[in-house]
Amino acid sequence: MAQNQMKKPNILITGTPGVGKTTTSSLLADATQLRHINIGELVKQNNLYDGWDENFHCHVINEDLVCDQLEDMMEEGGNIVDYHGCDFFPKRWFDRVVVLQTNNSVLYDRLSNRGYMGTKLSNNIECEIFQVLLEEAKTSYPEEIVIALQSDSVDDISRNVGMLTDWLRNWQPAS
Ligand code: DAT
User: Fold this and answer.
1) 18 CA from centroid of ligand 1 (Å)
2) Over the stretch 132-148, which tens digit does the pLDDT of each residue have?
3) Which of 30, 111, 126, 163 could form a disulfide bond with 116, CB atoms 3.0-4.6 angstroms apart?
């Protein structure tokens, strides 16, 4: 295949709400010209949910509809998928799975600033303490494609975006 026809990789950026997935994905998309797909926005724009969860104050997404909606774009390659879950996407879609992690007290402040409180706030902090997303990523994808990156500070964001940009530039599809 000619160089310019090479399929670009797909990256999944995951982690607890508030760790910096959207900020990191958006900067990475600017740096690489890859397509940033924010699953929360995609669900809202295309009504890909089954209802509203009163306990967690969030939409219950329909995972099958989300995967159907994404299939063609993922097949094409060159996507940065941003979501706080990762176990329902087909394993074959991703070349890299990045789990962002944040210090608990930093995350507490970010989520409080976002208006989270009560159970929603404490559940998300527990999710981060118990590394739920890292475990989910490790059980859902091959170990060698999963990386955990710290996302406490603005410097961390710059370093993570720089590192992922380098990885994308050097990426070669498996023959
Ligand atoms: P997510 O998409 O994981 O929910 P976000 O990108 O929306 O997170 O970020 C939540 C808030 O925290 C937003 O105001 C930006 C800020 N933030 C995220 N990562 C950060 C970091 N590493 N350093 C400083 N601020 C950060």
Assistant:
1) 5
2) 999 999 999 999 999 99
3) 111
| Segment 58-82, tens digit of pLDDT | 779 999 999 999 999 999 999 999 9
Whether the predicted pLDDT of 3 surpasses 60: no
Q: How is residue 155 written in tokens?
A: 């410097």
Return the SS3 of 98.
strand
120 is in an annotated binding site: no
Closest CA to 73 of 38, 27, 41, 35: 35
Is the pLDDT confidence value at 51 over 70?
A: yes
Contact 9, 78 (CB under 8 A): yes
Establish whether residue 150 lines the binding site of ligand 1, counting it when its CB lies within 6 angstroms of any ligand atom.
no
CATH of the domain at 36: 3.40.50.300
Nearest atom within ligand 1 for CA of residue 26: 6
Task: Tell whether residue 162 is among the known ligand binding residues.
Answer: no
Domain annotation covers residue 1: no
Q: By residue range, what is the domain housing residue 70?
A: 18-159
Q: How confident is the model at residue 55 (pLDDT cuts 50, 70, 90)?
A: confident
Any domain includes 69: yes
State residue 86 phi and psi, 5-degree precision.
-150, 0
Instruction: For residue 12, tell me if it sits in a domain.
Output: no
The total number of structural domains that make up the chain: 1
